[in-house]
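Weekly modeling sync, notes
Attendees: AB, CL, MP (scribe)

Item 1: holo prediction request
CL wants a bound-state model with pentane-1,5-diamine before deciding which constructs to order. AB pointed out that an apo prediction alone won't tell us much about the pocket. Agreed to run with the ligand included and paste results into these notes for async review.

Input as submitted:
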Amino acid sequence: MKSHLARISPFILALAAAGAQAEEEKVLNVYNWSDYIAEDTIAKFEAATGIKVTYDVFDSNEVLEAKMMAGNSGYDVVVPTGDFLQRQIAAGVYMKLDKSKLPNLRHMDPEIMAKAAAHDPGNEHSVVYMWGTTGIGYNVGKVAERLGDDAPTDSWALVFDPENAARLADCGITLLDAPTEMIPAAMNYLGLDPQSKKKEDIEAGAELLMKIRPYVRYFHSSQYITDLANGDVCLSVGWSGDVFQARDRADEAGNGVEIAYVIPKEGALMWFDNLAIPADAPHPDNAHKFINFIMDPQITADITNYVWYANANKDSLAYVDPEILADPGIFPPEEVKARLWTAVAYDARTDRIVNRAWTRVKTGN
Ligand code: N2P
């Protein structure tokens, strides 16, 4: 009897240990961009899994990166943009995904996942959440009042030509507080390669931004949604879906504000935001459950329908509002796509050049 027990107990111990590993505490800490999920997504996940979610938001890759590089953030799922993801992977910040726990991967669009693999080879650490462009949101009436009917609303000249910026200053211009997006946009307008890491190119882009700096009301990456919608600002360099959310809020308020989004003819940045699990995530199993849940076609479609961003889930498209699918500002047609560029991950040297230039732009000296 005694020897029998001695043989069984290590077996029971091993079972208990395996059980403890599989059964994580039913909590999950998510850190996502603001205005970037449907109203009911989290509640649905909680109801489906019994996992309680703590949901925090940010509006800057730099802020997310600082937390990831410091480690011990406590987050289980975060959403870095491709170029930032790439160097954070290199720094060992994310764990490899266990694809056996992600059966819904079959719904993803292989073409977009292949593009995202430029930042995460083999898509080993991440799944595309949403994608979009960085263009111009503007108040149709106020811009026409100030620049007339032939205002260059299809061009970056609308904001990067200092004469136009000066005439729009009184109704409010805002820029994203995102140096790796704003400076390349200015470089591209100057005819320079927006992907260039050359110091003189980056500084030329910053110089152009310095010229319009006196006409900029603020640098912020989420406040402009409300301000555009209320008519408190009239031009924001912003993210596609966020501008559409502003348009939608204005329509709903019935306040007479008409907002439009344009991918300027000179081209724009196309970016991918990705779900990833920090290497030190306290609840990696729940994190996989969350990522798999997001990839449910209906769930992803609900998010696109709410936030007006394109997704990379091919099977979700059947549930996406036809109006959104047909909108060239959200799902750009091929000829527009041909004018989009993607961001390159900056090395430490380029990062320093960009950050110094950006400080000058923001402080105005
Ligand atoms: C959502 C902004 C996400 C786009 N508000 C930035 N990559």
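Recorded for review: Confidence is low (pLDDT under 50) at residues 1-6, 10-20.
Action items: CL to compare against the apo run; MP to circulate these notes.
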